[in-house]
Amino acid sequence: MKSWLLGDGRRLAYREAGEGRPLVLLHGWSMSSAVFNEALRALQGDFRLLVPDLRGHGASDPGSAYGLDDFAGDLRHWLDGLGVTGFDLLGWSLGGQVALRLGSLSGNHLGKLLLVAATPCFVAREGWTAGLPAGQVKAMTRGLRRRYRETLDDFFAGQFAKDEVSPARMAEIRAFAAPAVDAETAAEPILAALETLQATDMREELGAIKVPTLVLHGEGDGIIPVDAGRYLADRLPQGRFVGFEDTGHAPFLSRPERCFELIRGFCRP
C-alpha cells in the first residue's frame, strides 16, 4: 500500500500497479481496495491502475463527513497531486456514485466511465422502484449498531446469488476481499456512508456525464436491482448496458474473466 497526504493532514491509502493510461478503480460501501486484488493482477499489463481506499474505509484515515463531495474531493486532490491529467474511471456500487460525482468534478480529465452494480438512487422512493425498501436499509443500520461484525458478514454474503460461486471460490474471495469486520472502530464512517447512500438521488445529474459509459450489472443482484443499471445506461448520454446472467452484486469476483475482458475492450483506444 502507498499513501498520499491530503490537504487537511489525513492520509489516503492506495494501491498502484502497471503502466499506461490511468484507470482508477473505486470500491463499494464497507469494502476497500483489496476487493480489486485480482483485477490488479489481471489488468496491470493494460493500464496504470490506481486503486484508493475511500475515506474511512480500509487503510485511509476517517474524515469529518462522508458525502459524495467529500469522497470525490479526496480523490480529486489525490489525482491532482499525482499529476494525473487524464484517466478512465471504474466505480462499483457506492464507488459508482462517487465515480459519477468525481466525473462531474473532473471536466475533460475523465475519458471513459465504467459503472459496476451501480445506482443513481439506492433506496426506493416515490417514482423509483429500482432501489431497496427504506425499511430494509433502516434494519441494516440497526444491525450495524447492535451486531456490527455479523451484519457486515451477512452483507458480504448477500452480494452473491444462490449457487453463483462454489464454496471453495467463496472462501478464496473472502480471504482477500471481505472487509475487516472485527475493526469496530470503523463503524462510524461505515454508518455515515450508509446514510449517504440512503439520502442520495443522482437521477437529475446523469445528463451532465457526457463521456462514453459502460454499465455492467448482474441480473441477479440482490443489493442493487438490475433495473437501476438499465436506468443508468438509458439516461447517461453515452451509456451502454451489459448484463450478467445468474450473477449478483460483484461480477468482477464471480465472473472475472468476462468482466476483465469487457473492461479491456472498452478502455483500450
Explain what the structure shows:
The protein is of the alpha/beta class and 269 residues long. It has helices at 37-43, 68-82, 94-106, 134-146, 148-157, 167-177, 187-199, 226-235, 251-254, 256-267, and strands at 2-5, 11-17, 22-26, 48-52, 87-92, 110-116, 213-218, 239-244. The chain is globular, with a radius of gyration of 17 Å. The chain has an eight-stranded mixed sheet with strand order 1-2-4-3-5-6-7-8, sandwiched between helices. The protein has a single domain, classed as Rossmann fold, CATH 3.40.50.
Secondary-structure map:
Layout: E1 2-5, E2 11-17, E3 22-26, H1 37-43, E4 48-52, H2 68-82, E5 87-92, H3 94-106, E6 110-116, H4 134-146, H5 148-157, H6 167-177, H7 187-199, E7 213-218, H8 226-235, E8 239-244, H9 251-254, H10 256-267
Helix pairs in contact: 2-3, 4-5, 4-7
Task: Compose a concise summary of this entry.
The chain has 269 residues and is of the alpha/beta class. It has 10 helices and 8 strands. It has a single domain (2-120, 130-267), classed as Rossmann fold.
Major beta sheet summary: 8 strands, mixed
The CATH first-level class comes to Alpha Beta
Structural class: alpha/beta
The share of residues in extended strands comes to: 15-25%
CATH superfamily: Alpha/Beta hydrolase fold, catalytic domain
Overall tally of domains: 1
The CATH level-2 architecture is identified as 3-Layer(aba) Sandwich
Helix coverage percent: 40-55%
- Mean of pLDDT: 94
What is the tally of helical segments? 10
- The general outline is globular
Write the H/E string, N to C.
Answer: EEEHEHEHEHHHHEHEHH
Q: What name does the CATH topology carry? A: Rossmann fold
Number of strands: 8
| Integer-rounded radius of gyration | 17 Å
Sheet with the most strands: spatial strand order: 1-2-4-3-5-6-7-8
